[in-house]
Amino acid sequence: MTHTTENILITAILCIIIFIPIYLAVRSARIKKAKKISNELSAIEKNLNLSLQAIEQFDSFVLAIDRAKKIIIKMALKDYSPQLIDLKSITGCMLEEKKQGKAIQQLQLVLLGKDQQPLHHIVFYQRYIDNEGRLKRTAQVAAQWEVMIKAII
Predict the structure, then answer these.
(1) How many CA atoms lie within 13 A of 7 on its CB side?
(2) Is the pTM above the cut of 0.85?
(3) What is the domain range of residue 141?
(4) Tens digits of per-residue pLDDT, 73-121?
(5) Domain count, the chain
(6) Dmax of the chain from CA atoms?
(7) Nearest alpha carbon to residue 147 among 51, 73, 54, 45
(8) Helices and strands (H, E) in the chain, number of each type
């Protein structure tokens, strides 16, 4: 073999030795996180006697909704703590973008009460915290949640 072929072979073997364990560790962590989220949502569902439909995971939280009972569950992924939002007292909602120049700083869904005062804020994106590469998809999903909530209230 020539030196070039030997060097390529050694480099390929080193890459395999390094990258396969990293790939497996990342994959395992994602699977464990998805299972933890599923278990937590199942426990909430049983404890509160809910039937969760539309479940969406974002960078820092998970949203789920029970359309029949008009309840949204927002679960933070940092500590898996759930926040219940009762839609029975909500009369309107609007998607709000806060910008600085052309850059979106924050994308949130504002849930309004009877006197048109904000009762709850669901922040879908916050600059420097959430992944900016997913902003377009996040904006689409936030718009879908706005339509879904308006259909329920």
Answers:
(1) 3
(2) no
(3) 3-152
(4) 999 888 888 888 888 888 888 888 888 888 888 888 998 888 888 888 8
(5) 1
(6) 81
(7) 54
(8) 2, 7
